[in-house]
Design brief:
Helix content: 55-70%
Distance between the termini: 39 Å
Structural class: mainly alpha
Number of helices: 20
Shape: globular
Length: 398
């Protein structure tokens, strides 16, 4: 996270750090809001580092060990701080989850992942405050309400897809966001989707981003003492929730895997001629975080391939915002490929693209993890069929 803040100051600020952070903070932050454009790359990176540090500090206060799940959550928080989360709008969500723990008379630490991933609903606070002009208190109330609903619903929705959708809180937040978007629309104000998509940053962003992931490879090799055996073994894992690669295979293997997955994500965007900007880097960083918590080259490749192949059939271009994000974030379905084989993974990726391009309207961009929402629907539909098919035709799916 300190590296992100340092990178922000390296890129600099056209209007000054305070003014550009202010512009980011007062933006409604609904999908898709590129903070590279709203503020600047420098300010967006500083915001990402601050949000990531906030999540890490909260974790340390709760005395939770930093392992695979926490790494995934922190990187996801930081990534989405380039396109929706701010150092301000995450706190009402935290407060809502904390309030739920108090009412349930349980330790807040039991719900730390709900709090961290629950910041998917951060735009609920900023959109109410600044988009609907309800002021700070209005944003606080709506944000707390959203955060409060995350813990009881997340466990319930997990059972529907049986761990095949890694962004389970995104699935949960999709329903909560749909509820609030419906309420907003019922009172008159629309909650329509937004697209602020930066262009032209590739020359200045690509090399530092690749070097960042190469540094993870180096750290992984150092921690593993130059041995890649554990890294190779983790590819045997299906990746379904909960797969903690740090605990299972050691931090060295996890770091190396994170670097590899980061390079895969970056390479895809560059290969199709896409833009490296706030939203696409958010997708890449989320892939990297979950490379400590379920994703690896073997189970993400079929999903990405299936999503890309769908673009050859559907009306969308691979360089459009939705398709770029759909391929990157669609790797939420990696456990399907890991569990049922590459063919099933390709099919899941194909269906995911069709779904993710159509469900955003439901929550009006209030759920930043739109692909988690779409992925949950796809996984829920596919798991029942795949389980039944695999039981009756053992080995055919793979």
């Amino acid at each position: 996270m300190f590296a992100l803040i340092a990178a922000g100051f390296f890129y600099g600020f056209e209007k000054g750090i305070v003014e550009e952070l202010r512009e980011i903070i007062i933006a409604p932050g609904v999908l898709i809001t590129d903070f590279f454009v709203v503020g600047s790359p420098g300010a967006a990176l500083v915001n990402a580092g601050l949000v990531g540090l906030a999540g890490l500090i909260l974790t340390l206060i709760a005395k939770i060990p930093v392992r695979g799940p926490i790494i995934a959550a922190i990187f996801t928080m930081a990534g989405f701080s380039l396109m929706g989360k701010t150092i301000i709008n995450i706190w009402p969500i935290f407060l809502g989850v904390w309030l739920y723990s108090v009412i349930q008379k349980e330790k807040f630490s039991h719900f730390i992942l709900n709090a961290l991933f629950g910041t998917a609903l951060a735009p609920l606070a900023s959109s109410a405050s600044f988009g609907l002009e309800l002021g700070i208190w209005g944003g606080l109330v709506f944000g707390v309400m959203g955060g409060f609903l995350i813990p009881p619903l997340a466990g319930h929705f997990l059972s529907t897809h049986q761990g095949m959708n890694l962004y389970n809180v995104g699935f949960t937040a999709g329903f909560i966001g749909t509820l609030f978007a419906g309420i907003f629309r019922a009172f008159g104000p629309g909650k329509e989707l937004l697209t602020i998509w930066g262009e032209g940053f590739n020359p200045s962003i690509m090399l530092p981003l690749i070097l960042y992931f190469v540094s993870m490879l180096v750290i992984g090799l150092i921690l593993s003492k130059g041995k890649l055996g554990a890294y190779l073994k983790l590819h045997r894992e299906a990746g379904a929730l909960v797969s903690d690669f740090v605990t299972q295979y050691g931090p060295g293997a996890a770091f190396f895997n994170m670097g590899v997955v980061g390079i895969i994500g970056t390479s895809y965007v560059v290969a199709v001629g896409g833009e490296l900007n706030g939203p696409s880097i958010s997708g890449i960083l989320t892939m990297v975080g979950f490379a400590a918590f379920g994703k690896h080259a073997k189970n993400v490749a079929p999903i990405m391939l299936g999503a890309f192949l769908s673009l050859l059939v559907f009306q969308w271009s691979p360089t459009e915002p939705g398709p770029i994000l759909g391929v990157l974030f669609g790797t939420t379905l990696a456990p399907i490929a890991g569990t049922y084989g590459s063919i099933a993974g390709i099919i899941a990726g194909f269906f995911h693209m069709a779904m993710v391009m159509n469900v955003g309207y439901l929550h009006g961009g209030l759920n930043l993890y739109n692909n988690g929402f779409a992925g949950g629907i796809v996984a829920t539909l596919m798991v029942g069929v795949l389980k039944n098919f695999n039981n009756n035709h053992e080995g055919v799916v793979k």
